[in-house]
Structures are given as structure tokens and as C-alpha cells.
Amino acid sequence: MFNEFLDKHGNAVQHVAYWLDDKNYNGATNHLESSGYPLIQAFKLPILRVGYSDTRPAIGVVTELVGSSPEGHEWRRNLKTGNF
Length: 84
Description:
alpha+beta
């Protein structure tokens, strides 16, 4: 998905991401789907669930939702500070 976008559009914004608690992930993805923005790619890791919804018709980019466990939040904090 990323390479295809970059090949077509060059150095441009491909998606926006929202990081949320895992308990809110299903509700958020269901809300996007029921609003007409289908899930186009998803995967699950031990500490994260990630889904990409096709919000391009409305905002011009894909929307990524990351549902994170407490361990995932800690991983993100460490990643942001370079402590990994």
C-alpha cells in the first residue's frame, strides 16, 4: 500500500494515524465502516492492532487506527524517546 502510493504521488502524506487504547479499537473501526469508509488492510501484533480505512474520498488520505495494549503504549513512548 505504501510503495504504490509513493510511486504514484511521490513524497506526499499517505495516511494519518490515531493511537488509541485497544478497548476503543473495535468501536472506532466500526464507526468508520458504518460511515462509509471500509477497512482496506488490518493486522494484529501481540501488543497492537492496526487497521487502515479508506477515508480518501473525504479527507484525501487513508486513516490508520492503532489499538494499543498498555505494553504497546510503553513501546511507543520508548520509540519516541529512542529508548529501545
